[in-house]
Amino acid sequence: MGNDGLRTRLLALLLAVSGAQAQAPQPPAADLIARGRYLTLAGDCGACHTAPGAALDFGGGYPLATPVGVIYSTNISSDKIRGIGGWSDEAFVRAVREGVSQDGHLLYPAMPYDAYAKLKREDVLAIKAYLMSLPPAVSSVPSTELSFPFNQRWGLTVWRWLHLARGELRDESAQTPAWNRGRYLVEALAHCGTCHTPRTFTYGMDNAKAFGGGDLGAWVAFNITPDRNAGIGTWSRTELASYLKSGCIKGKASAAGGMAEAIEQSLQYLTETDRLAIAEYIGSLAAVRDNRQTRPRDRWGTASSTVYALRAGRLSSATGAGLYNSHCASCHGGEGEGNGDGEGFPSLFHHTTTGAYDSRNVVAVILTGVSRRGQTTTVMMPAFAEWLEDEQVAALSNFVSAQFGHPSAATITPARVKALREALRAPSPAAIEDGRLEETPNGS
Question: Could you list the residue ranges that cross the membrane (predicted)?
Answer without folding.
Answer: none
